Amino acid sequence: MEHENARAESVKYHKRTGLPLVTLKTAMTLDGKIATSTGDSKWVTNESSREDVHYMRHWHDAIMVGIGTVLKDRPKLTTRLPHGEGKNPIRIVADSLLRIPLDTPLVTTATETPTWVFCSDQADKEKELQLLKYDVKVVRTGSDEHVDLKSAMKYLGEKGVTSVLLEGGGQLNWSMIEASLVQKVVTFIAPKLLGGEESITPISGEGFDRMTDAVQLKNISVQKFGEDVCITGYVQDIQISDK
Ligand SMILES: NC(=O)c1ccc[n+]([C@@H]2O[C@H](COP(=O)([O-])OP(=O)(O)OC[C@H]3O[C@@H](n4cnc5c(N)ncnc54)[C@H](OP(=O)(O)O)[C@@H]3O)[C@@H](O)[C@H]2O)c1
């Protein structure tokens, strides 16, 4: 029911703004790490938390990661529910120069589950044609450097995508926050301590210099999944108004 309510919330938000509602989902240890310095992240949270994430995927129109995560983890980003198949969201990758390998699961399975890659105007045209042969949709966002994330969200909104589940990694998460494109944050916290200056954190990038600049979340709710805790908060008062 809770996920169905979130779905209704994003449909309403899309109707009002023309943009998808973006939810940043992270899973971290109590000391704020999502993976070890070697990149080992299986698993941070327990089975019950991970099952809930698959329900989140089921109810979202799209799921988004950066090319760093694709190169490192070769994810499938599909929905795996305990009692059979769920609905797979459209898989979105921010990949300025189309570095995505042709043999990665997001490409090889694009015929069954859509994969859309957003890139910059500098991306190789030949690689674009190769990806098209695998049914991967390539969208140029008009920028010369990184993917223009505002244009990407506008494009998704125009295509009727009402909700995006942002699953990282840290660089993309930061850029989406910096561009004020995240409306909701869902953080699963496992009661584990990992330590390590080189361990990976959920949001990287430059970060803000002053505590007063930190993004303040509102309307906080807390849930427990076994011994894990999940905190949900909103960046803006998005769910209130029908204007
Ligand atoms: N445990 C978890 O929950 C979890 C979840 C996700 C990831 N991870 C881990 O996170 C690590 C990868 O993190 P990451 O930060 O390197 O990768 P990332 O955020 O997935 O990807 C970063 C890349 O995205 C591309 N990009 C395109 N447009 C961008 C923009 N506007 N802003 C920022 N980036 C943009 C950039 O490459 P180009 O310039 O080439 O486009 C950038 O290097 C992996 O170790 C992975 O296992 C863990």
Would you write up a description of this structure?
Pathway: Cofactor biosynthesis; riboflavin biosynthesis; 5-amino-6-(D-ribitylamino)uracil from GTP: step 3/4. There is one protein chain. The chain has 243 residues and is of the alpha/beta class. The protein has helices spanning 2-17, 47-59, 67-73, 105-108, 125-133, 149-158, 170-178, and strands spanning 21-29, 62-66, 80-81, 84-85, 90-94, 115-119, 137-140, 163-166, 184-190, 218-225, 228-234. The strands form two sheets. Strands 7-6-5-2-8-1-9-11-10 form a nine-stranded mixed β-sheet. The model has no long low-confidence stretch (mean pLDDT 94). Bound molecules: NADP nicotinamide-adenine-dinucleotide phosphate. Residues 26-27, 34-35, 39, 41, 44, 65-69, 72-73, 94-97, 99, 146-147, 149, 167-172, 175, 200, 204 line the site of NADP nicotinamide-adenine-dinucleotide phosphate (NAP). NADP nicotinamide-adenine-dinucleotide phosphate is lined by residues 26-27, 34-35, 39, 41, 44, 65-69, 72-73, 94-97, 99, 146-147, 149, 167-172, 175, 200, 204.
